[in-house]
Automatic annotation (TrEMBL), chains A, B:
Keyword Cytoplasm in annotation: no
Originating species: Catenovulum sediminis
Cofactors, names only: Mg(2+)
The protein, known as: (2E,6E)-farnesyl diphosphate synthase
Keywords: Isoprene biosynthesis, Magnesium, Metal-binding, Transferase
Highest taxon of the lineage: Bacteria
GO molecular function per UniProt: (2E,6E)-farnesyl diphosphate synthase activity
PANTHER family the record matches: FARNESYL DIPHOSPHATE SYNTHASE
Protein family: Belongs to the FPP/GGPP synthase family.
EC number assigned by the record: 2.5.1.10
Length: 294, 294
């Protein structure tokens, strides 16, 4: 099976799981909020983080069933962050994956609340997962650290502050490390935490892999914003330039940015090459990340 | 000691705890976000929920030390909800407790992110608390249920939808039950959950007490919006009317609203009167709630 078809299969199953989750949540509290949460969570997302989590779990011999609640939680966090990032006061985007963003489809207040409630749902889902309490607590420690002030939220704050200003490559890496990298790291470490007897050294190697992969992912994202069409992206092409955002192609030139993506990709592979697990699917996924065209 | 001085003492200690917590969070990720979170969390709040939690703990023989992480988490949730509620797309308030609201002091994007990161901090604080994992998981289940779609977020969504329209008393009660009531219930139940051997029946009585108390709190809030001065409130007097919000005085008339607050207060006391704990301080607190002038 090619990685593309494997991802498609995973997406279909994961979307089914989300649909079932929402069927269990009665719409009667606030039908609009219920709709806006579901809309945002099922808005054509590629499920990159849950899929990555499932690959690490597979490599470690952990069942997908075990890590699904953590995967849902992570996707709720990712989804809420997109809803809030798209708001007029933030990136002011009308389109996301070819569809109206939440505040366009509903309204700003509903989008703020849907994001808020999706974040809550993340922690609620883990607290109600079918694993022991120790794993749940470790998951919540890890997820909250990567999602909050120590990770994603600060990344977004730095990203906004850097608009309309020239920043250094080191500053750009810090932003992406926090903004995009944090949740990809969380994907890998949440899977690792489902195996409590995993040696700390192996967990560290997986984490280094995740950090390099996150960087490769972001560089490729910046490259695609320059090279891909609006249609392929599902959002306006050149939107980084429009916002005067510093990007890898902007700082390094397109050719060197492509080269850097390749270097970082190779470095990611190095981190896990000697691990005593079948990491072939992670290698394939990493290549897929740096070669994707949308 | 009068309840007023007891609350003041608790506030001072609790604020000290929050200040220490923030000293441990390095500002280097995003100094602005760090500032905005601290500003919002220490913006002169009355600490009603943490104080209520401490009174229930006291009645049950649980140390304040034990429940402090849950109290901090609850206050983080309350604080984030105020920051988001004050946004232009929501209630559009410039003043909160006599000081500029977060999006006025900083900017809208920072306020959205500060709210988001405060919510994350709530769950992170519980996950890192010094109690056993079972209590942590129960706290997170309970807090997330009251704070998210099942509680506060839906309350706010319904409240916004009800602006500029005439709603029934039953609808108004549903809104307040979710919007204000949920976090007061959480205060009481989080304290109860710190005592795992508490009989389910007693927990239910405490919960009924919390529900009635929450309603009394909200009716008094509506009354004060009509009768108190802008100076005493720390926010513009008459702001409910400005937003065409349905209120108890609006639906019942001022005199009957005052009467209803008294009835609900008596009903709250009834719920816990026969419990085998020293609930005198909870009685005093309930009276304080319905008699407060700001």
């Amino acid at each position: 099976m090619t990685i593309e078809s494997d991802i498609k299969k995973f997406q279909a199953e994961f979307n089914q799981t989300l649909a079932e989750l929402f069927q269990q949540i009665p719409a009667d509290r606030s039908p609009i909020l219920h709709q806006a949460m579901l809309y945002s969570l099922t808005n054509g997302g590629k499920r990159v983080r849950p899929y990555l989590m499932s690959l690490v779990a597979q490599a470690l011999g952990i069942s997908t069933q075990t890590i699904i609640p953590a995967a849902i939680a992570l996707e709720c966090i990712h989804s809420y962050s997109l809803v809030h990032d798209d708001l007029p006061a933030m990136d002011d985007d009308d389109l996301r994956r070819g569809k109206p963003t939440c505040h366009i489809e509903f309204d700003e207040a509903t989008a703020i609340l849907a994001g808020d409630a999706l974040q809550t749902l993340a922690y609620e889902t883990i607290a109600n997962a079918g694993v022991n309490d120790s794993i749940k607590v470790n998951w919540i420690k890890e997820l909250s650290r990567h999602a909050g002030y120590y990770g994603m939220c600060s990344g977004q704050a730095l990203d906004l502050a850097a608009e309309n200003s020239q920043i250094s490559l080191a500053e750009l890496e810090k932003i992406h490390h926090l903004k995009t990298g944090a949740l990809l790291r969380a994907a890998v470490s949440l899977a690792c935490l489902a195996k409590p007897d995993l040696p700390a050294e192996h967990m560290k190697q997986f984490d280094e892999f995740a950090q390099q992969l996150g960087l490769a992912f972001q560089i490729q994202d910046d490259i695609l914003d320059v090279t891909a069409s609006t249609e392929a992206l599902g959002k306006p092409q050149g939107s980084d330039e429009k916002l005067n955002k510093s990007t890898y192609p902007g700082l390094l030139g397109l050719e060197q940015a492509i080269e850097k993506a390749e270097q970082v990709y190779q470095s990611a592979l190095e981190q896990i090459r000697d691990l005593p697990y079948n990491t072939q699917s992670l290698f394939n996924f990493a290549r897929f990340i740096v070669q994707r065209q949308h």
